[in-house]
Structures are given as C-alpha cells and as structure tokens.
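Lab notebook, bench 4. We co-purified these components, and the gel suggests they stay together. Before we commit to crystallization screens, I want a quick structural picture of the whole thing.
Request: model the full complex, all chains together.
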Amino acid sequence: RLDLVPEDNRLTAEAAFATEEGYEQAFAKLYAGLAVTGQNTTGQPDIVSDDEGASGYIRSIWKCQELPTDEAIIGWNDGGIRALNTQTWTAGNDFTRAAYNRTIFQVTLVNEFLRQTTPEKLDARGETDEFKAVVNGYRVEARFLRALAYYHAMDLFGNVPFVTEDDPVGSFLPPQIMRSDLFDFIESELLAIESEIPAPRSNAYGRADRAAVWMLLAKLYMNAEVYTGTARYSDVITYANQIIGSGYTIPQIPYQYSFLADNDRNGAEEEVIFTVPFDGLNIQSYAGTTFLVHAPVGGTMSPSEFGINGGWGGLRTTPTFVEQFPGEENSADQRALFFTSGQSKEIEDIGSFTNGYAVTKWKNVDVNGNQGNDPSGEHADIDFPMFRLADVYLMYAEAHLRGGGGDMSTALGFVNEIRERAYGDSSGNISASDLTLDFILDERSRELYWEGHRRTDLIRYGRFSTQGTWAWKGGVPQGTTTSAFRDLMPLPANDLGVNTNLQQNPGY
Amino acid sequence: TVSGTVTDGSNSMPLPGVNVIIKGTTTGTSTDFDGKYSLSVNNGDTLVFSFVGFVNQEIVYNGQSKIDVVLQEDAAQLDEIVLIGYGSTTKQDATGAVDKVSDEDFNRGAIVAPEQLLAGKSAGVRITNNGGAAGEGSQIQIRGISSLSANQSPLIVVDGLPLDQRGVQGVRNALNAINPADIEDFVVLKDASATAIYGSRASNGVILITTKKGKTNSPLEIEYDLKASVQEVTNTVDVLSADQYRNLANISPAFDTSLTGNANTDWQDEIYQRATGAIHNVTASKGYENFNFRVNLNHVSQQGTLRTDLYERNALNTAFVQRLLDNDLKLTLTAKGIIDEYSYADTGAIGAAVAFDPTQPIFDQNGNFTELGDNLAPRNPLSLLEDNQNNNRSKRLISNFNIDYKFWFLKDLRFNLNAGIDYAENDGKQFNIANPNNPNAFAFQNFYSGLNRNTSLDFYFNYKKDVESINTVVDLTAGHAYQEFYISSNQTLTGAGGALITNPEIINRNGLESYFARASFDHDDKYLLSLSYRADISSRFSPDNRTGYFPGASFGWKISNEDFMKDSFISNLKLRGGWGVTGNQEVGNNYAYLGVYTPAINDQVSFFNNGQFIPTLRPNGFDENLKWEETTNYNLALDFGLFNDRLTGSVDAYYNETKDLLSFVPVPAGSNLTDQILTNVGELTSRGIELNLNGKIIQSDNLNWDTNFNITFQDVEVENLSLTDNPDFSIPTGGISGGTGNTIQILRPGFDPSTFFVFRQVYDTDGNPIEGAYVDVNGDNQITTADRQAYKKATPDAFIGFTNNFSYKAFDLSFTFRGSFGNYVYNNVASSNGALATAINAPGAFQPNVNASYLYTGFANQQLFSDYYVRRADFVRLDNLSLGYQLPFENLKVRASLTGTNLFVITDYDGLDPEIANGIDNNFYPRARSVVFGLNLTF
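Here is the predicted assembly.
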C-alpha cells in the first residue's frame, strides 16, 4: 500500500525503457541538452542553482568564451556577469558555475543513458538484434556528446570531477581528474567511436557524424599545448584534411546567411560540421540563439528587423573588435555587422546600451527578411553552428604556421576562400606574406566572433590575461592586463564546498 | 415536584444546561435558558446538580417546594479540557508546551482567514499574513523554523482530521474552508513532548482546531452575525511624481523627453480601490438529551483593495452529536461544504504601477489604455486589471465521523475512531489579452482544474483509571492511523504557436501509516509523567528507510499542591519539562527516492531527428537513501498563578536540534543527475524563551479588565550544510528582481537561515552612500563577490502580542498590539528601480519610473547588493481595536460592534510595510486598514 510509483506520465527507469520510443526519447534528451534547459520552455529546469536561461549549454559557454574578451560586453546587472567582462570573477561567480553545472550535467545524462542501455540490459529486456543495433548507434553518439561536454569543461575549468557510466547515482564524492588526463580520456573516446559513428554527412541533421568526431579531435590537438604542455599540430593537419575531404564547402552566399533563421536550408548548411538546431515553436529555450538574437538588440534598433518581439538591450562589442575591420563600421568586409546609430564606439558606461557598437550578426529572419516560425517573435529558429568549415580552414592555416605540416599555398587558399565570401569578391584576398599567426588570430575573430571561440583562441596565443588589453579588461575603462591564473576559470566554490576531492585551480 | 433556578456563583447569572439528576438513577432534567428546572421527586431523594467547570452539589429533598442552587466554579474543573492529540488532558495536568486560545480571546474584525484569530495571542506563534489580497493566507511559524526545504508550516488538525500541510490547489488560503465563526478553540502544541504523538509531521508544531457543536439539553438558538467592512490601502511605494520624473531631463541628457507625456498620473492611486466586504453567519443549534446539532450558513464577499480582486465564499457547516447506549456510545459527525470563488486580480499591476511612466495619461487619445509600445515596457497597470481575468471556483467537503465508545464491561476502557475526508475540486479559467506592446502576441488562455483528496482513518483505545492503591491516575492510549493524499491537476493553455495545448495530467499520491501509544501517570495530583511513542511509515522513502520512530517524554511537578505551599499567595505553581523527537517528511516530491524519468510537458522542447520533432525523456536526480528529517526538542517551563490566579502565566525555554535536514542542496557535480537534489544534509538549531502573562486586573460587577502579554525571544542557526562538514560552505537563497538569477540571502553555517548577503556600503561624511564604494573585505583592492558579507536577517530576535479586554456594563472594548524586533527587510522595490539607469537605460524605447530612494542616493546605476537596502524593520502594529455594546432587550440578545484593524504601524522602515515574511520587499500587495461594523442577534 505504501509502495507507490508515479501514476502520471512520469516513469520509473524500467517503465521508461520498456518501449522503443522510450529509448529514442531518452536519447533525444542527450542532444536536447545542448539546446533546451528542461522539460518545458521554462519552469522544469535541468539545473536549478542557476537562472534557467543562463544555465543553458550554449548560453553559459558562450558567456564564458566571449564576455571576458574584446568581442563582447554586456550591460546587465545580473549577479557576477560584470565580473566576466572585467575579468574579476571569483570562485563564487554564478555564470562560470552555470557552464560548469551544465557541462557536467550533460556528462551525467550520457552516463545514465549508457548505464540503462548496456548489452546485458538490452538482452534482459529481450530487445531484437535489429533494435540493439539502433541502440548501439545511440550509445556511440552519446559518447561523442560526453566527449564534447568534457572538452568544454576541460577547456574552461581544467581539472574537473570525473565520472563515467561505471559510477553510481547518489551523493558520493567524484574524484578530480587532471586536465591532461582528461585530454587523454576525451581523445581515447573519440578514437574509439571514430569508426563506429556514421560517416561524414550521412547522419541525420543535427546529429554527430565522423566529421564531428574529427573536428573535436582537431580542436583538442589545436590546443593540446595549453591542455597538456605538448603540441600536436601535425594531428590538427591530419584531421583537418579528413574533414576538408568530406565534401563541405564555403558557400558563396552572404556571410550573414549562416546566422539567420533559415540557416538550415539557405545554403549556409553546406559549411556546417555540427550544429545545434533550434526551432521557434518546437525547440525553445532562453539559452540558445533566442538569447543570441534578443540580447544584442536595444537602443534605437528595430526588433522587427531581427524577427523578434523586443530586444533585451545587453550585448555590444568593444572598440578593439570594431578596429579589427579596415574601415571599421564602414568596412568592405561584410562580416563587420554593426549597428552604430545612436551608439558610441567607446564604452564609458558598461551599463548603458548605447555605449559600444551593437552587433547585428544573429537575426531571426530568413534571407527574405521574414520572421522565424514563432509568430510571437519570442523564440528563434536559428541553428547554432558549433563547428563549421571556416574554423577548420583557419585551424589548418594556423597549424601549418606553427609547424604542423601541410603547405602554405593550401593554407592561403583556404583563408582567401573565407575572405572571398566576406568581401563578395577577391578584393580582400591576402598574399602569403600576410598570412602570419597574428593575422590568423585576427581573422579568426573577424570570421568566428560571437560564436563562442574567442577565449580559447586568445589563451592559445597567450593574449587573454597577461597580454592584450581592451575596454574594461581588468575592471578599468581603458583596460589593463590581468594575472595568468585567469586562463583557467575557477571551480565553483559551492562544488569545492561539497566535494573534498576537488582542489581549486591556482590563484583562486 | 420540585423546581428552582440554578445560578452561577461568580456573577449570579442563570446557568442554562445544568444537569439535575436523582442520585443513583438516570432520571433527571436540565435547566432551561433561564436556569430554571422542575422535576418530580420523592422524599429522601438526593438531587445532584452538575455542570462542566463547576463543583457538583448534592441536596436531599425533604418536601421543599423550591430549591434554588448556586453553583461554584471548580478550581480544578475550571481548569479546562485541553486536547492533546488522540486524547485530552487538563490545563493543570498538561506537561508539554500546550496553549489553548478560545473564542473569547480571538482577534476581532472581519476575519476571513481563521489563523488570523490567533495572531499575537500565543507566545512562540508567529502569524504573518501574506498581504492584503482578498482571501489571502498567512505564514504560520511555531518556534521558528526547523527545516530548510521541507514544509515549514504546522500540522493543522480539524476535529481530528489532519489537513494536508501543502494546502489545496487554486485557492489563496486553504484554511479559509474553516469558518472563523465556527471555531470553538485552537490548541497549539509547541514542544516535541506534546507533538511527538503526531510523529513525522510534528516538527513545525501542531494546531488542533475544534469547531463548535451544539450543547446537550439546550433550547433552540438562532444567531445571525454580520460583519460589514470597508478597507483602504494605507501606504504605497514612494516613486517619483510626474514633475520629479520630468526633472530627470535636467540631470541626464540621456533622458528622452520625446517619450514623456503631459499627464500627471499617480498609477498606484489608480489601481487601488476602497474595498467593501460582508460576512454573514446564520447559525441554528439545539440540544436534546441524546442528540444535538449545530448548523451554520456562511457567506463571505470580500473585495481586494486592488481593483477587480474579489473573494467569495458560501459554506454550510454542520455538526451532529448522537449519544446512545446510555451515553456509552457517542457519535459525532461534522461536515462542511464550502464553495470558494476567487477573481484573481493580476498582481503584476502592482509592479507595473510602480514602474509606469507617471507623465502618461491612463487613456490615449483613442480612449484605449495607454501603452508604451515596447515588448519589455511595463504594461498599463489598469489594463492588466481590467483586461485580464482569472477566476477560480473551488468546491470542498471536509467531513469527519467520530465514534467514541465506553465498553460496557469496563467503563474505564474507551474506543475512539475517526474517519475523515477532505475533498476539493477546483476549476479555473484565465484570459489575458494579447500584449498590446507586441503586434505578434496572441491572447493567452489557461484552463486549469484539479482535485485534492485527503482520506484518514484512525482509531485508538484509551484506558484511564484512578488506581487508589498507589494513589495514581493511569491513562493509557494506543492506536493506529492511516492517511492517504491524492492530488491531480490538469491544464490546457495557449502554447507557443497560439493554439491551445493540453498538458499531461499530473498525479501525486502519498500515504502515511502510523502506530502510536501514550502512557500518562498522575501520582498524588503532584507528580506527572507522560510518555508517548509513534512509528510512522511513509511512502516517500524506500522500504529500507520507510519507518521513523518518534518518542516523547515529559514530567510535571505541581509544586503548589505540596503541603509547604499551602496558604501561599502563589495559587498555582508547576514545573514541567519535556523531551521528544519529531520528524518531517513533507517535501512536496513524492518519489524523490526513486529514479524517475520525466517526459517533456509539451512539444516545445523537442529534439529534431530525421525530419521529426522527438519529445525527450529526462532522468531526474534522486537520492535512494532519502529518510526522515529529525528534530530533537527539549523544553523546560514553569506555570504559575498568583493571587488566587488573578495573575497567571508561564515561561518556557526550549532548544531544538534538527539533523538529517531534508534539504534541497547542491550535490557534488557529477554524482547525480542534476546539480541540486533533495537529500538529508545539515543541521539546524533553534532556541528560545517564551513568556506568557494573563492578568485579571479588575474584576467587579460592572467593570472587568483582562490583559494578556506574550513575548518570544528566538534564535535560529544553521549548523552545517554539507556532507563534508565544511564550515565555509554556503548556499545562495532569496531571489530578487532587478536582473536575472540574483539572490540576496545566504544559508551559511553559524547564521540565521534568512541572513542577507551584501556588500557593505561606504558613506561620505554627510552620511550619503557613495555609489559603488564598498568595504574591500579581503583587501585585494577590488570589489568582487568575495567581498559580500553575511549581514542582518529577516527573522526577528523577539516578537510580542499584547491584548486587553475591558467590559463595563453592556459595553466592551478590546485591542491587540503585535510587535516584532530585530528583523530586517531588503527593500527590493528601491534597489531594483532606485537608480537613474532605471529610466534611461531601459532595454527599449521607454523610460520606467524611478523609486524615490533615488532622491537620497543619487545612484546612477542599480546597486542591488548594497546593504543600504537592508533596512531595520522593527515594528509595533495596532492589529485591532473593537468596541461593542450589548443592547438591553429581554428575549433577544443584540450586540453591535465597531472594529478597526491595522490602525497604525510604528516603524522606522521606509518601504511599504515592515512585516514581510521572507524579508524581501517586492511587489507586495499592501495590507489594508479596515473598519468593520458588526451586528449579532441571538434569539
């Protein structure tokens, strides 16, 4: 009489995996973990310590990658968000914690799926061989998603708690893994699934394939010196070549098409290696591109041009970033997507939206300017291109210059292919002598700004903390350098408080 | 035949309902309304006159034609019966911290929420109403809090039926189902020796409510009672006037005068109204020899001070008592049928009125409500009230059937059975117009309904015997109880695409099975001992942890009954002490020990796979080892009565220690399926001293003056919060507005759970805050989150209640003050809107109004975490003042009264109201001042 189980649509684990739909839906949650924040648009959050929107995968990582750099500044007054802009965060920062909680959540979600779908369990439930093969495919992709989450966690926090499907669910104290060991784990996982995962461009849209595995390996090797102390640039060349040989192209359509509501079908998708799909009606959250399109609209900008019902008046950029473009806001480079009317280039007051140029890169409209699927203009359709070919091209060029092999003319060709899209013609092309490491860092910013890469790039170049200044870095208007320990984010104070196995990163 | 009149020795008034019986027989009668009786008797018969609370009198009949009797109050009997859960005792014999508050002590006024009758009346009991909304409920705390994440409200038992501590859906206050006019008394069980018999639900104290029943052998009495009230808001938030707002243009060039209008609108003036209300009660009661009944018909209609806010109640409350088998079997049936109807005003209008541009007119030139045309702009507060509707109707039945049987072969053995049900269905409809500031928005519809069913069956055996050989009264009880709670909810609402979507039904069921026993001993009317034990089995925990054991023990020493105390001015002196363990399992989540998978609520959070949107299934976090939260309590007290009990009182000192707190806390990242779960972590202690004083200051034929004063000192502290005993570990709490995800309070070992967590503001030589200048606590020359400090708290150090009742001939006058000291409030209205940036940095083409605190601070930007906004909120409030007059009719009792409630508040707090339960003042529905005319007719 007191052995009560849910009587509504909630399910015990046995009931959840009693149907094929149950497997598919539990698997769907693993991917959805990158896009949405819970079991409803709001109100059923996966993560409860943090504001639900701010705790989403893309938004939380994006803030850690962009706000401490010259690419973005935010006017809001939420908790520790200012500290991200000024590089004065502490272990108590709620936004770094959000990224930590979300990436580790994603890991535990995958672990649970792997525990529930072991060959033994599938046998015990009497699944058919055909269905077992389907589930094994799910398991392979699940391991990719776990490697991805660990990659983000490793990049931001270095030495994080480490759990796999062999650990239980409870309130035990997970051990801490060192960054270089985690590097090895991620690498071994990716290499292990490489042959099992569907070939490049053969999986369903939005799902990972072999090229996504290669891409993650390439990014791992690109920053290997930072993560492990040992450079692996030739491996970057290897995997970049494999991706490039898989048939992706830089479509010769306007650069902005990649960041519009129809970027899954306007041609921009030809470039995309791994994307996180959103839909204004069916994939909603305040954590993905809904954030990226609302937060930068304010001042005298017209929300309807962005396909939204109103701006949130938060995000702008710094003068340093504007100056990356020759001619600045009037640059011939079409990637210089600024809104300047009523805005000052300089930032005297972080809190005032009109200080700093606004950025119009993300728009919830299609190529014809029509608003996305959500008629209320609240939620965006824009898919988030996490990995795209331009990034691979630039990694190839950089790895080449850093001695990883490959050849200069190929590298130059890649960079000019990107710039031809940016300029609409060859007028922006560069010559081999222009192609320096410094140029690549700048070009990465021009090409990939506001896509969540900048912090990692600056750290690889040693210009995130002790070198390089821009407005408000270090908490002063003109900017100042900060200490090297800030190249790693702190482990959240509250996790250190509950897990004595963890040692804080130095400096915090 | 003999006849006569029985009167009350204390006031010479006739006593109706006195039993007059011929000794040794069952023949007899009882006195009528005028205290008169007549009975046929034989010479030599002995007449026994008996009445509860009076000393029996025996008179031998020797042919007298008239026997008039004066009954004297029995000092021992006077000592009233006090319920203690599955039984009763007397005030004199109670060994736990038990307080009874009866009809005559209740607060006066047009009271709709029954708990308000009790506010300020009992030491250790703090009742804070949640604001001025129509039909609003209260936070009730007995001896502070003993839990962080589990329920913090006391268990409320109505006529033997324990109510669901979570309330019922769709209503502002689930307790409103108990008609205040129907309540005989409250008994508050405060310490664990008293509450342990309620085991796992007793950690927050227990309130036993007894409703009125008919009286045996009483004539038909019909009573009509009316309370008509008028309410007004006494205070609104200080914001800039239209002129002050226009002046912002002189301060900042960024202030855009093209956005301002020409009107001078005080939006807060516009949203509030003079609210009227009426409470009607018609009651009929009658008692026969073996049967009595009471039937009450109740109608309440109460407007809120916020326009369009309305609460209505219609209820039929009945009680029937039937005695059978020579009074050995007593059957009691109580049944209440209640229809609660709410028109919920959109309380978003309160915040909108504070923020809306005061230079805008209410209506635009087209006669429509003025709107600012930006999706993030505040909505026109009047449009929110007039154009949005939300109505809910809740039908509820609360019924309890009680059998009390004395065994024919052993009259000292009694069997008691209670079968109860509390059943509620609600049905609500909400309709909001499309946001006029968003041309793409659609109207919002929400149809919601639900069912709450609480069924209870308990029985016990009681054996009570005066064992003369050892001069000890033995009282033994043992029983069993089972209770089940079933809750379901349905909702159909406008979804993302504008179409109506139906959410899956939510069902929650949980059960609680219990065994309990108590043994009480009274030796020589001097030494008291009581022991109790309860085992509770809860469906909320795994079979391994399902059973919890809750012992209680207490003693009493009636010092005044010792020989050496005879002839002292001390009329009563009792030392009592107790110890007990209670639990808490009211955690909201019924399946927290099970690994449960939750489907998505709708198709808005799907994954796109192969051209289809696939719904998701999420494994929830869980703790399979979840178990009881346990509070151990110690209580030591002295009850006293001086000068023939003209001055009585008690002092209680208590100490509570809660361990294995059911806390919703961060778990080590990676160890579970989410970042915070409900688990048993941490310790909390609370201690306090309670003093309760009652004085009969004047007692005379015409003039009487009674007074009650109670004061409570309390201290609550978090001892530990994590599995690792880390003293520096803390958890942010207390979400505030003015940005997303911000919090202002902290749970930290060594501090009160409501402690604020702030930057320490630096002031200039004139005492004005310097914007952004805070104390650099860690000395790193930067102001970072590491410089935030735990500072002050929302919980008071002390609170008081002070009541006086005067009567002079047919007039009576009473008043009650309540006060609170050492409590602080964070003024979130000022902190979120009290900067220039509020107006000029809005995220769009609109400029919200600025809180008037800006005139003092001059802050350009929000300083949300400055302790400037943590304000001292001590207060003393005149809760009510009531004047009554008994009209001099012969056969009709008429009482007219005039009552004012919430007449004034003495406080330094400069926000809206210092009495904010959680200490965060934001969008508070203001408490109203009311004037109530009352009329009571009895015939």
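Chain B touches chain A through 105 residues (CB under 8 Å). Worth comparing against the SEC data before the next meeting. The first strand of chain B starts at residue 2 and ends at 8.
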